[in-house]
Fold each of these.
Amino acid sequence: MNMDLVSEMLELGRRAKTAARELARLPSERKNAGLLAMADALASHHDAILAANALDVEAASAAGLSVAMIDRLWLDEKRLAGMAEGIRAVAALDDPVGQTLRQWTRPNGLRFNKVRVPIGVVGIIYESRPNVTSDAAVLCTKTGNAAILRGGSESLRSNVAIANALRDGAARSGLPADCILLIPHADREAVRLLAEMDRYVDLIVPRGGTALIETVVRHARMPVIKHYHGVCILYVDRAADLEMAERILLNAKCQRPGVCNAVETLLVHREVAGAFLPRAAEILRAAGVELHGDETVRQILGDGVVPATEEDWTTEWLDLKLAVRVVDGLADAINHVETYGSHHSDAIVTADEASAERFLNEVDSATVYWNASTRFTDGGEFGFGAEIGISTDKLHARGPMALEELTTYKYVIRGTGQVRE
Amino acid sequence: MNMDLVSEMLELGRRAKTAARELARLPSERKNAGLLAMADALASHHDAILAANALDVEAASAAGLSVAMIDRLWLDEKRLAGMAEGIRAVAALDDPVGQTLRQWTRPNGLRFNKVRVPIGVVGIIYESRPNVTSDAAVLCTKTGNAAILRGGSESLRSNVAIANALRDGAARSGLPADCILLIPHADREAVRLLAEMDRYVDLIVPRGGTALIETVVRHARMPVIKHYHGVCILYVDRAADLEMAERILLNAKCQRPGVCNAVETLLVHREVAGAFLPRAAEILRAAGVELHGDETVRQILGDGVVPATEEDWTTEWLDLKLAVRVVDGLADAINHVETYGSHHSDAIVTADEASAERFLNEVDSATVYWNASTRFTDGGEFGFGAEIGISTDKLHARGPMALEELTTYKYVIRGTGQVRE
C-alpha cells in the first residue's frame, strides 16, 4: 500500500468534512454568492485553464487518442464561457436545503418536522469531459455538500486548473475553499481509498465504465449511486400507431446513439411485425443502423440482418446498432424487459390504454414511457434545471439525479419537556 | 467455499426475485388478505412453533445463556397471540405503494408521475427475538417486497417454524409463498453470500452487533441500511429549566437503558453545572446509574465518579452508566456531539429559542430534540404505525424506518408521440 497516498487521501477527507460542516450552516444567499464568484473565477483563471488544457490536448494527441476523444477534452473561450454560464444558472435555481418535507404534531404535543439537509461529503468519480469538474462541483456547493472529485486521467491538468479556479472563487466569497477538492492522481488506487473512507465520505457517485464502477462497488463502505449503463428497450405493441412508432424509434435510436437513454433493443408484436419491420428497417438503414434480429425478424427482413445472439439482448451498443425481436404479446414483451433490460428507460408505443397501463405498472425501471421517446430521461427534460447524471440504482436517487437527490433529511422535534411513558 | 451453500443461496435469491415480481403487481386488498391469512396461520401452526421454540429454549439453557437472553427467546400463547395481533395491525395500515409523490406536465405535453413502488427483494439480518421474523416479514409483504430473513442462531428452530407458518398463510391466500424466505443456517458465510447477491437482492438491512454489521458492510454490493448503535447525547444548556432537564435525563437514561435511543452522554453548560450536577447525580444514583465524569464533573460531585476516558465519549453503554462532561457553551456542546456522537438522536434542554434552533440546525443527526427525551425515536412514537427499526444511515432511510422507507419510486411518463428535438 502506498502510505503517502493513504495519508494524502485521509487528509482530503478530513478537510472535506470540515468544509461540509461549515457549508451546511450557510443560507442560500451565501452559497449563491459563492457560485457567482466561482463563475467569475473561471474568467479570471482563463489563461491558466486554457494553458493546462493545451497540455492535456497535446498529450492526448501524442498518445494517439481519437479526434472525437480530443474534441471532448478540448476547451476554448466559448466552452469556458459556457461552463461559467452553467454555474450562474445553478445559482438561480431554488435551494432544496431547509425545505420542510412534512410536519405534524403528536397527541403528546411533540411537533415533528422532516426537513431537507445536505448529505455531507460527496465523492464523484467521472471519466468524461473537463466541464464535469465544474458542473458536479457546483451542484454540490448549491446543496451544501463538500465535493471530492476524481476525473479522467487524460484531463487531469485541466481538471486541476478548473478546481483551482472554483476554490479561489469560493474563498474570495467567504465559502470554505475545501468545499471543492480534486484528487490530483490518475491511478485507480485513489478510487479504492476514497471508497473505503466511510468515516469522511457520505456518498460516492461513480459515472463511467464497467471497470471503474466495479472497483467502487467492490470497495465502497458508504452508499454508492451508480451511473451505469442503459439497455433501453422500445416495445411496439399490436395496437401501436405505426407512424408514431417509427418516429419514436428513429429518435430514440439515432438522435444521439452514444448516450445511456438511447434505445438498444426493439421489440415488435408478432401481429404487426410484417407491417412495421420493413418500414422501420428502411428508415433505420437510411440512418446507418445495423440490425441484429431474431429468426422471425430475419424471415421478414431477409438478408442484411445480423443473427442476434443471446448476448445482444443485454448489450448497450452506444452505437448505430439495434437488437430486434418479435414477441408474442404484451406479457412476452414485459418478460423480455425484466429479463434482459437494465431498468433505466423503457417505452411502449400503443393506442390501447389498458396495455399501456400494464406495461407502465409491471416494468420495474427508473423511467417508463407510453408513446414517447426514451431520450427524455434527462434532468433538463424532466424540468429539474440541472443534473449530476442518471442514477441506475434503485434507492435514494433513481433516474435523473438533480439538486433534491443531493440532499437527505433529518427529523427536528420540538417539545415542552415530554418524556416517554 | 461451500458450493452447496452457494447454490442454495442463489436458489433462494432466484425464488425471492420471482416472488417479488408477482407481489409487486398485487393490489393492497390482496396483500392485506395475505397478511390476515398469515396471522391465522400463526394460530394453526401454534403447536409446531411452540415445540420448536421449546427446543431452542432447552438448547439455550444447556448452553448456559442468561435468564434475560432466554426470556427474549421464549414464546408462549400470549406472545404468539401478540405476533398475530401485530400482523393484523399492519394489515390495517395504509399501503404506500402506488401513491403519487409528485405529478407535473412539461411544455411539450409529456405528463410525469413520480410514484411509490416496492424495492424488490429485501434481505433482513437480525440477532434478536423470534418475533422479529414475523414483524420484519409482514412489513415487507405489506409493501410488496419479498423478504429474505436471517435470524439469530439461538432462535433458528423457532424462526423456521414461524416462517413456515407465514409462508403457509401466504400460499393459502394466493400470495407467492416465496415472498417470505428464511435462511436456515446460522453461520456467517450465509450472510456474506447474501451480501454479494446484488443480482437478486435490492437492499440489505442488518440489525445487530458490530461484527455482523462489519461483515455486511465489507461484502455488500447492494445498498445497505444499517441499524447500528446510538451514542445519544443530552445537552443541558445554561438557559435550561433544570427541573425539566432532570425529568428528561432520568427518562432518557433509565426508562429502558438497553435500547439505541437511550442517552449515553450528558453535557452540561459550565454556568449551571454547579446547580444541576448534584441534583442530577442524586436521582441518577438512586436509579443505580454509574457516572463517568471529566475533571470538572469530579470536582463538583466528589468521590464516586469514575474518571472518564476518551473512549467513554464514544461508548454505547446500553446499561445504567453515563458519561458526563461540562462544556463551555453551545458551540462546545455541538462540537462534542459532532465529534463523538453517532448521529442517532441528540437533545438540547433550554428555554432559549435561539440556542435551541442553532443546536437543531447544526447537529447533523437523524433526529434532534428540543426539550424532549431521545426515547421518542421510534416508529410508533413518530406515528408511523410500525417500524422495521431505526436506521443509523443517512440515505434513503434515516431514523425510524417504516412502510414508506420500504418503498422506492419510479417515473411514469405518458406522451402522445413526443420525440426529443
Amino acid sequence: MQRELAMLARLVRQGTLELELPGGEVHRFGSGAPLARWRFARPAALRRIAANPELALGETYMRGDWDAPPGELAALLTVLLRNAGEFVQRAGRLRRLLAAALQQWNRVQVSYRNASHHYDLDEWLFRRFLDRDMYYSCAYFTAPDVGLEDAQRAKAEHIAAKLCLQPGQRVLDIGSGWGSLALHLAQHHGVEVTGLTLSRRQLEAAQRAARERGLAERVRFLLQDYREHQGQYDRIVSVGMFEHVGRPFYARFFGQVAACLRPGGVALLHTICRLGPPGTTNAWVRKYIFPGGYSPALSELADGIEHSALKVTDVELLRRHYALTLRAWQARFQQHRAEVAERLGETFCRMWEFYLAASEASFEVGDLGVAQVQLATHIDAVPLTRDYLYRQRSAPQALRRAG
Amino acid sequence: MQRELAMLARLVRQGTLELELPGGEVHRFGSGAPLARWRFARPAALRRIAANPELALGETYMRGDWDAPPGELAALLTVLLRNAGEFVQRAGRLRRLLAAALQQWNRVQVSYRNASHHYDLDEWLFRRFLDRDMYYSCAYFTAPDVGLEDAQRAKAEHIAAKLCLQPGQRVLDIGSGWGSLALHLAQHHGVEVTGLTLSRRQLEAAQRAARERGLAERVRFLLQDYREHQGQYDRIVSVGMFEHVGRPFYARFFGQVAACLRPGGVALLHTICRLGPPGTTNAWVRKYIFPGGYSPALSELADGIEHSALKVTDVELLRRHYALTLRAWQARFQQHRAEVAERLGETFCRMWEFYLAASEASFEVGDLGVAQVQLATHIDAVPLTRDYLYRQRSAPQALRRAG
C-alpha cells in the first residue's frame, strides 16, 4: 500500500485527489481545484490498479472495490487521467502494429460478432439513457446548456447540411443503428436511404420505426457489412461506425465508399478520433464494451483516405461535444439505475456507468475528440466556402409541422 | 516521334488534345471538351518530354520548344495533367524517404539559402503580379468573381477570425514575407506582431512598410529561422511558409510552435497540401522555383502535429481558391510581360509563366489543395462550434475608415 501511495504522491500534479480508506483514514495528493474523492471499500484493489491500470481500474470498480461520491465518477476519472503520466501508455510502433493485427482484424464474420456483443443488448437498456430518437453518437451542442434531444436533432441537421442533400437523392448510411439518422434524412430532406447494420435487433427496431413513421417506401434497412454491400449512391454517411472498422481495414473502408459513390458524390464520416498519436484501445474497453474497436488518430484517417479516390474537403473536430453528450447519457442512466440493476444486475450497472464516465473523462481531458470528415469524388462537389453550413436555416418543413 | 504520338493516343481519355507541328500538321487525341492546343516549334522536344516529363516539360517550354495559344497555357497543362496516367509517378515509400532526406534536409543554413533563391528576387517582379498588399499565398474567394485585392483581404480576415484575436495579444507570424498579414493584423485587430523571414529583401521591404503605415511600434520583423526564435505568444500564424519546412523537420516545426505558444494559445497554419498520398516534389519546381520545397499530404501534417502537444481543432480545405488566385496572378503577369522580359529576359519570363500555369493546373485537377489547420494548446481555446467564423462581421473600424 505504501508503494502505491508514494506513487500517487509523485503523480498528482493537477488538482487534488483525496483517497479515503475504510477506517476513515484520508490521504491527500496534489493541491487546488478540482477536488476528486476516491473512496475505497477494499484498499487492496489499489495494488491491482497500480499493476495493471488499463484493465484493473474498471474491473475493480465493477466489483465495488471503490467508488466516487454520487455524480462524481467522471470528475474523479478526469483527475486520474490528467495525472496519469507514466500510466498513460504511449504504445510503440511495434506494439501498435501487433495490436491492430491481433485485436482489430475485423473480418466480416468477426465484425458481426463484435457488433452483436454491444448492439444486440436489449433495446430496453438503450432507451434508458439515449434521446427519444435513439442517436447513439456524439450530439452537436450549439451551446453547452442545450438539451440532449435538441442537440441530437442539431447533429442530424449539421450532417444533412454537410451532405449537401437534394430531394430524390439516394443515400447510403453505413452503420444505421436504430435508424434515427436515416429516418430523419428521409423525412425532412426527401431522400431515399439505405441503412446497413450488423445487429439483428437494431435492424428489426429500425424497420419497425420506418413502418410506424410511414417511411418504409423510402428507407430500407439491411443486415449487411459495408464490405458485402453493392450499390451506387449520391451521398454516403457513416456515424459512429468507423470505430469498429479496425486499422487493418481502413483502406478497404474508404475504397468501398469510393466505389459506392457516384461522380460528384459527397460523403460524411463522423467518428471518434484520438487527438494524440496512434495508440491502442484501452484493454478494459476492448474486453467489456467494444471488442475489435479502435479510434483512429487523424493521421491514420488521412492515410486511409489518401489511398482511395476520395478527396477530403473539410474536417471539423467536435471536442467537448461528446463529453456533454456522455454527461447527459449518464444523468439519464442514473435516473433509471434501480430498474437497470434489477433487470441486468448490479455488476452490469457498474460496468455501464464506468464506461460512460471513463468515456466522458477521455473527451474532457482532450485525449479523444470527434472528427466529422467531409469527402468528395471531386473538389467542386461542395461549395467554394463553408458559409453554407452556417446560414440561418429555416427549420425543414416537416420539422416545423412536428414542432 | 511515332512512339510518342502512339503514347498520347493511349493516354488521352478526358477532353481533346490537338498537337500542332511546325509544317501545319495536326494530330488529334481524345474527344469532347475541353480542347487544348499544344503547338510545337521543335517537335524533337516531345521525345525529351516523354523520357523525363517532370523536368523536361518545363525546360522545353522555357527554351521555346512549344507553346499554347495566348492565355491557354494553364488549360493545356490541366488537360495534360488530367490524362497523365502513367506519367504521374506515385513515389514508393523508399523513394519518398530518400527524397525527403536528400531534397528536404532543410537545416537552418540551407533554409536561408533556399529562401534567398526565391524571395530575394527583386520585389519589382512580385509587384508585377501580386495584389497591392503583396500577399504571396492563396486568397479566399467568397465567390469566384471577387477581385484579387478583396479576396486577399478576405483571406486575412478569415485567418484573423480563426485566430480568435483580442486587442493587445502578442502574435508570432512565421514566414512574414513582405509583411502584409502582420501589418493587417496590427492595424485592424490591435495586436502586436513579430514577423520572421529568411529573406533580407523581404525584411527591408516589410520594415519600410511598417514605418510608412505608422505601425513600427507594434510590428517588428526579424531575419530569423523558426528554429532560432525564442518567445512566448498568445497566437501564432504561418501562411505559405510550411511548404519550405521539409518532411524531416515537421516534428521540429510543430514542437517549436507548441513551445512558443502560451497556455490557451491558438495557432493557424495555412499551407499547400497534396490531396493524394505522400509523394515527392516535381523535379522542375525543385530545380527552378522552390529548392527544398515539399507540400505535405494531410497524413504527414497530422503526424507532425500528433507528436507535439498541440491539438487540431479545425481543418479547412481550400480547393479551387488557389487556382483562382494563380489565374489572377497570371493575368497580371501577362499585362506586364514585355517589361519583365526586357528586365529579366525571355527565358525567365517563360519560366515564371510556366510556374504559375503549372501550379494553376495542379489545383484545378485537385492534385493540390490548401489546408488551413487551426491548432490549440487546449480543446476549449476556441469556441464550441464554428459559427463564429461565419457571423456577418461588420468591417473592422480602420478598414471602414480606409474604405
Amino acid sequence: MKKHNFSAGPSILPQEVLKKASEAVLNFNNLDLSLIEISHRSADFVAVMKKAQELVLDLLDLKDKGYSVLFLSGGASTEFIMVPYNLMKTDGKAAYLDTGAWSSKAIKEAKLFGEVDVVASSKDKNYNFIPSLYTIPSDANYFHCTSNNTIYGTQIKDFPETDVPMVCDMSSDIFSRKLDFSKFDVIYAGAQKNMGPAGTTLVVVKDRILGETGRKIPSMLDYQIQISKDSMFNTPPVFPVYVSMLTLQWLKDMGGIEAIEKINNKKAQMLYDEIDRNPLFIGTAAKEDRSNMNVTFLLADDSKKEAFDKMWNEAGISGLKGHRSVGGYRASIYNAMPVESVQVLVDVMKKLAE
Amino acid sequence: MKKHNFSAGPSILPQEVLKKASEAVLNFNNLDLSLIEISHRSADFVAVMKKAQELVLDLLDLKDKGYSVLFLSGGASTEFIMVPYNLMKTDGKAAYLDTGAWSSKAIKEAKLFGEVDVVASSKDKNYNFIPSLYTIPSDANYFHCTSNNTIYGTQIKDFPETDVPMVCDMSSDIFSRKLDFSKFDVIYAGAQKNMGPAGTTLVVVKDRILGETGRKIPSMLDYQIQISKDSMFNTPPVFPVYVSMLTLQWLKDMGGIEAIEKINNKKAQMLYDEIDRNPLFIGTAAKEDRSNMNVTFLLADDSKKEAFDKMWNEAGISGLKGHRSVGGYRASIYNAMPVESVQVLVDVMKKLAE
C-alpha cells in the first residue's frame, strides 16, 4: 500500500515522476548508461538543464522579462548568504520581514554583511500570523520576505507594493499559486517541497539588479558567474535537477499553476473546514494568514492523542507530526498530494469525533 | 549492451549500486515511500548519513583520530571558499601548489581572503608534471594541494612532510589508493568520481584546527556549525548521500582501499604499457607523475583519428574524448571501472596499430 505522505519536506512527489527517475538511474534516454554516470556537459544532460529552466520561466510567466533561472546547490540556506553578497552594497542596508524560523535565519546571515532593518516580526506570537503594518525604508538595497512558513502554517497573501527590489524565499509554496511573479527581483526555493528532491535550489533573478554592490564575491556565490555559466560553473547536482525538470513538466501537463492552485485551494479548504467544524481540533495560525501548503493544528484535548495517532497511522498516513516549536500536527499538502489522501485524513478526524 | 564508461566525472558507478539506488527511488527500506520523499530527519535517513560517515572513517583508517566527516553540497568548488574561511587567519596567509585548472581555481578564490603564496606551478608545461622542489613557508596557515589532476592525467605520489596543516582536494582519487590519511588536516572531494553521483561533497576535517581564524563565517560555510549539526544544518542532498553510502559499502565489501588499489594499479598499468608500446600513441603526462585514475594520451598521427574514434565507438566505449586544454583522449578508470572494460580499450588500441 502506498502511504499518504504528509511530510513537510523532503516531501511527496508525483508517482509518475518517481517512476521515470527510478528508470533513469538504470538507463537514461536509452543511452545504456545511468543518468548519474554521464557527463553533465553531455548533450543529454545539457538538454535537461535547459528544459528545466524553460519550464520555470513558462510556469511563472516570466519569459522575455529579463530574468535568468539558476539551479544551484547548497539549499535555500546558501541563498541567505548569496542574496546579501549579490545585492547588499558594501555600505548599504537591507529590510527583512520576520515571519518565522527561516526568515530569522536569513536575517542572521544578512547581518554578517551589513545593516539589517527588521521591518516587522510576529515572533512574540510564535509566528502565528503575518505582520501587515510595516514600512519598507526606501533606501534599503532590497526587501526580503518568506512567502510561506512551513513550521507555523502561515502564508503571505498580499505582498507589499514597493520600489525597493523584492527578494522572496518561496521554498515551500513556489508553483502552488498564481502570483504576479514579475513583482519580484529574486525568487529562490529549495527544491524539496513542490519541485523535486533535496539537493538543488532554484533561483530566478532579474538580471539588471546584479553587479551593483562593489563587493568581491566568491565565484560559487556570484549570481552573475552562475548565470554566465548557465548553472554549470561546476558540476551541478544532476539527479535533483533532472527530477525537478520531470516535476515541472508534470505540472505543466496538468495545466500549470492555475490548474494546481484550484486543487490546492480545495485540499486546504477540506482540512480547514474540518478543523473549524470539529471541536476536537484547533488551528494554530491566524485564519486570514493560513497556509494552503502546511495546515497546522492541535488537539483540543491531549488525552485523545494516543487514539488519534493510532487511527491515522492505521489509515496509512505518514509525516503528520507537527514541528517541535508548535507541537500538535502539520499536514503538508504540496502540489503532488492527491485530494484522496487529504480525504483520508479528514475522515480520520471525523471518526475521532464520533 | 552496457557501455564501457570512461567518463571523467560524473562517472561510472558499480552496477549493484545503481540497481539499489533505482529501487530506493520507488520504495526505500520497504517504507512504501520513496527515498526522496521522506524527511531527512527520519530514522531511516539519519541512519544512512551515520553509516556513510562511519564508512569514510573506516576506509580511510581515521577512526578515533580526531576527525569529523561531513557530507555537504556545493561541490569541491565551494570548498575553495570554505577552506580559507575556516583556516586562513584574518591577517594570515596560505600556501598553494598549482598543479592544474582546479588548483588554479582554488588559488583564485583563496586570494579573496588574504595572501596566497603559490609555492610551485607546472603551468608553463601545461601542467604535465607535478612540481617536487618547493618550500612550504612555516608561517602559512595551511598548505593546499590537489592530489590528482583529471584534465592533465597527473597525480601526486609523494606528499610533502610539513608542520603546516595540510589540505588536499582529493576529488578525483579519493578511496583509490592507500595513503596515510592522518597526515592531512582537511581532505575534501566532490562525490562524482569514486564516491557517488554529483551533488554532495565529502569533507574530512581534523577538529582541533578549527575556530582559530577570527573570521565571522556564514553558517552554511562554517565547518564547526556543520559538524555540530552532523551535516544537517539544512536539508542535505539526500539522494547523492545515499548513493555515496552504497558505493562506500560496496568498496568495503570488496576489501576496502587496499584491494581496490591493486585493481587500479593493474588497470593503469595495462593502459600505460600499451601507450608506451604502441607507436601510434603518446602519453601526455610525465611518467613518474602519471595518474592511476585518468590516463591521458594523444595520437602520434592525427590522420588516424577518424579510424580510432570509429573503432572505440563501435566497441561500446564512451567518454574517451580528452579535455579541450590537452586534446586527444582521456581514459578515466575510477574504482568502479572493471578490468574487462580497460581490456576492451587496450584491444582497440592494439587493433588500430595492426
Amino acid sequence: MRCEVLAIGTELLLGQIVDTNSAWIGERLAEIGIDSYEHRAIGDNQARIVAAMHEMFQRCDALIICGGLGPTQDDLTRDAIAEWIGVKLVRHDDLAEQIAAMFKVRLRDMPQNNLRQADVPQGAEAIPNPIGTAPGLRCEHGGKVVYAVPGVPYEMQKMVAEQVLPDLLRRSGERSAIVSRSLKTWGTSESALAEMVSHRVDALVDTGNPTIAFLARGIEGLVVRVTAKGSTIEEAEALLTAEETELRKVLGNLVFGADDETLESVVVSELARRGWTLGTAESVTGGLIASRIVNVAGASEVFKGSIVSYATEVKRDLLDVLSPLVVSCEAVEEMAIAAKRLLQTDVAIAVTGVAGPSEQDGQAIGTVCFAMALPGGVVESVQTRLPGDRERIRQFASISLLNLLRLRLEAMPL
Amino acid sequence: MRCEVLAIGTELLLGQIVDTNSAWIGERLAEIGIDSYEHRAIGDNQARIVAAMHEMFQRCDALIICGGLGPTQDDLTRDAIAEWIGVKLVRHDDLAEQIAAMFKVRLRDMPQNNLRQADVPQGAEAIPNPIGTAPGLRCEHGGKVVYAVPGVPYEMQKMVAEQVLPDLLRRSGERSAIVSRSLKTWGTSESALAEMVSHRVDALVDTGNPTIAFLARGIEGLVVRVTAKGSTIEEAEALLTAEETELRKVLGNLVFGADDETLESVVVSELARRGWTLGTAESVTGGLIASRIVNVAGASEVFKGSIVSYATEVKRDLLDVLSPLVVSCEAVEEMAIAAKRLLQTDVAIAVTGVAGPSEQDGQAIGTVCFAMALPGGVVESVQTRLPGDRERIRQFASISLLNLLRLRLEAMPL
C-alpha cells in the first residue's frame, strides 16, 4: 500500500503559510507501516490539481488531499475530484443542514457560499467533521482511493487519525483499530535511548505490532511513540498498554510524561498533589521558566511568582546575594532561599549562569548553576556546563531546572 | 519564466522535519515575479529524484532542488542531476581543497566522505557556499536550468538570495541585481495597511519595480516588504531607498523597525541611547516580556530585572499594591512604581490582566492593564481588552506593552 499526500493552496506556494500538515500525515503513515514516497503542493487551480492527481495515481494506491475544502470559489478540491472521477457534484441536504446548524450554534449568519461545502462528487462519501464546517470526502475510482481532508490542522488531524488511517488499514487488509502513545523523555541521547529499548524493538520485529518510533523534539527531548493495531479498539489498547509497561520498566524516570504532558505540567501537578506552592529566581533565563509554568492550566494554584534578577545589583540588593561570584552554587542557593522568603512559597528554584557573548567573572560561557529550596529548610544546588548559543543555553537551562525539580519531587514520598 | 521547487529528504516524508525551505523560496520567487506552481518533496532515492525532475521539467523552465548535498551515501542530489543530464560526476580539486580548509579552520578532522561534496556533474558549475561545506550546483541542459542548494536553511537562504535569484532574473531577461527591505509594522490590520499604501502600489503597477508585498507574521505584526531590481546593486538600492522613504511617510510610527529588528531590540536601543535602565513587573504575562528582552544582544546594558507577581499576595506583599482590584489601572501603576523602586531603574513597565479560563474580580477574560513609570516621576497607564485564548492574550499583552513603550520613547526628545 502506497499513499501520497497532496496539499492544496496558492498561499503554500507563495510561502504565506508553511505546510506542516504533510509532515504530520507522513509521520502517521510511517507509524502504521504505509509507504509514502511523495508530497506535493499545488495552487488553487482545478486543471493543475486534476493533472497532479493523474500523475500521482500512476504510482500510488491512495492519495490524501489536504485543503481546498473551504466555502469560496477558490476552494476547488471537490470540483477537481469530481472531474478526476468524471462525475458531477451533488448537494447533500443532510450535510447542508448540519452546516447551517453549526452556524446557528455559533450565533452567526451563514453566507450562502457555505452550502458549497455540502457538495459531494456523485458516488463519493462525505467524512463527518465534528469540529468544523467542511466535511471530508472519500472517493473510490478505478481501484484507487482519494481522501480529501480540511487544511485547518486540528480538523485535519482528527479526521485523518479517526477516519482516514483506519480506512487505509482496512483497505490494505490490516486490522483497522489504531491507538498510539507518546512517552516523552528528557536527558539522554537518541542512540542511548535506542540501545535501552533495542530488546523491545527486536521482540516486535516478527509481529510488527505494536511499532516503536523515536521522534526528536529538539531541545524538548525525545519521544518514544508506540502505535498498536487491533481488530477492535480494546484489542489495540491492550497491546499498547502492555508495551508501554515494558518500555517504562527500562526507561524509568527518563520518561517525564505522556502525550500532552510537558515538564512544567508535570511539575505543577506534582506540587499540587502535595499542596505546595512554587516561586522562582531567574538570572540567565530571564523569566523563561516562569513563562513556561504560567502556560500550564491550573498553574495559579501552585505558582506565586518569580524574581528575574538579571543585573548583579538586583541579586545583591533584592535577593541579598552575598557570594562574591554571582555564577556559583553559593549564589544560586542564596537566590533560591531569598525567592522562597520574598514570594512566601513552599518551594523555590533558582538559576544563574553565563549565556555569553563573553565570559563573566572568569566563568566560561555555558556555565550554569541551579538550586532548589525545599520544605524543611533543605537547599540543594548543582553546577553544570551547557552547550550552544545564548538562546540555546537559556532554553536548555530552563528545561534542565524543571527536570531537576521534577525528578526531586517524584523521588519524595507523598 | 516558471520555476518549481523540489525538496529532497526521506526525513521530510517521514515528518521528522517540516519543510520550511520551500515556503521561503516560494516567497522570494513571488517577490521577483517568477511563477511557481508546484512544490514537491521526494525521499533519498536516486531513481525517484530523476523521475520527479523529468516530470517537473515537462512544465517548467527552472528547478531549485533543496537538500541532498551532504557528504553521506544518502545524499543523492549530485548523482541524480548527473543522471538527468547523462554525464558523470567529476571531482573538482579546488572545491576539495576549500572543504578541507574549512575543516582545518574549525579544528576538526575531515571524514573522507566529505570529499563527495567536491563532486560536480560534468559541465555543471559549482555555486560557492561561504558558510558551509556543501557547494551548490548550477546545471543547464536542454534549455532548462537546475539549481541545487543545501537543505540547511541559513546556507540555502544566502545562496538562493545572492546567487540563484539573480541568475534566474538574468535568464528571464530581467535586470539581475535584487535588494529587499522588510518594514515591520505593529498595530493595524492588513486591509488598513493595504489602503494606506494603495497609492504606492498603484504608482508601481506600470514599472513593476520595486514591488510591494504584505507578509503576515501572526501576532508579531505585518511586514511590508519592498523588493527592487536594477542593472547594478547601486541602481536597485537607489530605487529601494526612494520607495522606503515614500512608505515610511505614510506608515509613520506604525513601522517599528526594519529587517532583523524586533520590538524588544528597538526598545533596548531607544533606552540605551538615553542611558536609561529598565525593569518590569509582570502578572498575566508571567515573565514573557523579560524573556523577550534578555534575548536582545546587549540587553544587559539596559535591563536589570523583573518581578513576576503572579499571585495576588505577591502583588500586595512585595509590590505594595493597595488597590482592591488587582486588574485595574491603579494596581498596574502601583506595580510599575514598585518595580522601578525595587529594581532601581530609570524606567519600569508593568502589566496585569485576566487570561482566563475564568473572569477575575468581575473583570472579563482579556481585560489587560499596562503602566509605564518614567523618569521624573511620570506614571501612565491604560486599560484594554485583548482577544484570544490564554496563550494568545499573554503573547498579545507582551507585544502591546513593548509597543507602548517603544512609541512613548520615540516621542520623547533625546
